[in-house]
Amino acid sequence: MTGNRLLRTSLRVSLLASVVTVVQAGPQAVDCASCHEQGKKISASAHAQVGCLTCHLGHEQYPHKADVPKPACAKCHADVVRSEAKGVHGQERAKGNTAAPDCEVCHGDVHELRMTSSLAFRQAVPQTCGMCHDEIAKQYLESVHGKMLERGDLKAPLCTDCHGEHAIQRPSSASSPVHPSHIRETCARCHGDVRLSRRYGLPSDLIVSYDASYHGLAAKAGSQSVANCASCHGYHNILPSSDPRSTINSKNLPKTCGKCHPGAGKRFSLGPVHWTNTAAPAPVLWVRDLYLFLIPFVVGLMVLHNGGNWLRKLWRLRIRGVPDPIQAVSDAEAGLESSTLPELRMYRFERIQHILLLLSFTVLVWTGFALKYPNQWWAVVLTRWETVFPVRATIHRIAAVIMMTVAVIHLVSLIVDRKLRRHWLELWPRVTDVREAVEGLAWNLGLLQRWPIRSAHSYVEKVEYWAVVWGTAIMALTGVMLWANDFMLRLLPKVWLDVATSVHFYEAVLATASIVVWHLYTVIFDPEVYPLDTAWLTGFSVRKRPRSVGEAPSKESTDPENYAH
Prior knowledge:
Blueprint: H1 2-24, H2 38-41, H3 52-55, H4 78-86, H5 88-94, H6 103-107, H7 119-130, H8 134-142, H9 144-150, H10 159-163, H11 183-191, H12 194-199, H13 206-212, H14 214-221, H15 229-233, H16 253-258, H17 282-319, H18 325-334, H19 348-372, H20 377-383, H21 391-416, H22 418-424, H23 432-444, H24 459-483, H25 485-491, H26 494-525, H27 535-538, H28 555-558
């Protein structure tokens, strides 16, 4: 009897030892499936390579203890769990919302969960999210992205691709990938990928063209109210433009664009929306080609003219210190001392206009180019508050109003004031200006040795003045069109605004370059007046202006009664 009992005890110890040996041999050596159905399921799941004992601590003992806690996902996925707790779902659970989804709701039973990269898992995501967001899921499944997924395309974007996977934030949160400030980057992950664009036959420059548009530039500067990809294409109900339900279908464009541009007419839809400099509407290409010729030609001619002038005057006046002999002869023959006969160049009223023009033009250049290049150090001070208030645009428009007001005042003053009008007539172009310009350029280039004949108000001043008149008119016209874009879109196709935008930019480049190369040279860097021609401050110039032999200053320019006009 005692022998049998010892035999049975020995067999039990041997069996237990063998079980322990198997357990200690490794997680994969334990055949939990012999008793537990989950053991069979896990073999086909993402956790197939994770042994049961890795998660189920204490179950190496048999029989299993009843109070062993269930495994926590954080044991292996601590970073993911912390990230999910910061998301909208984790925050809702922390508030006591028991309906908020957790790991198991989204991924399924821990023994059956699929690999997130598998087609089966990705195709199940819309239905999973649709348990709470049913209407949104329905729109998605009917969209171009949903149809791609239905066809089994692994590259089809899902809810999690746009909204994030675990740390999902509300769209109103600045950290959300679908917040207005991040929409462009989120869409660009696919639509900015050249390989994906080629694979699906999509234009590869959609993001580039958006970035180059007013909407893209304003968004880059920080504006959150400007239209982004989703504003036009939709969020979940994205459909091809050929679909009558699509928000970008030609019949629906007035309604879509009317959300930001009330009253935008059907003519607005005429012409392309996405385009780049290489594939722009024909009128825009004409404008671009014209200015790409005009800007280097005009500015290059100015550099040539003033560069030669600077070298000759630097040598004569600053290095040799010899005044021009022709100038000395002119004064001597006229019997006049130039130092005793100051020349009045600008009346007081003209100087006030000039100062207002100077200030408004400088601000316009600064704020205008800040839209095109918002990340530059000189633009950041303006765009810093763009998310709260359109500081740059407001200052730009105030400066534009000042400049246009100065232009109107100038025109009215010429009509009502005879002295100003007579002074202005000195800037009226004459045939002799052509000869003076040719001789002036020839002298600057060393092709003419004698001092060229030059009028008191020569081609130099006339080029400056009429360039300002032309530039102000062009910039005012195109600027008003862009400012009143809602009104213009009711009447004209969008391509008109595209042309106005192009002209406004290129004309600004030409005007800025001309001021720097031509005007600043005349009033600052010319060795004859350096460091400053004070005519715009005092009315009198430090320049000794050449006159033809025997020509005396006019009474108009030396009469003290006119100084304070």
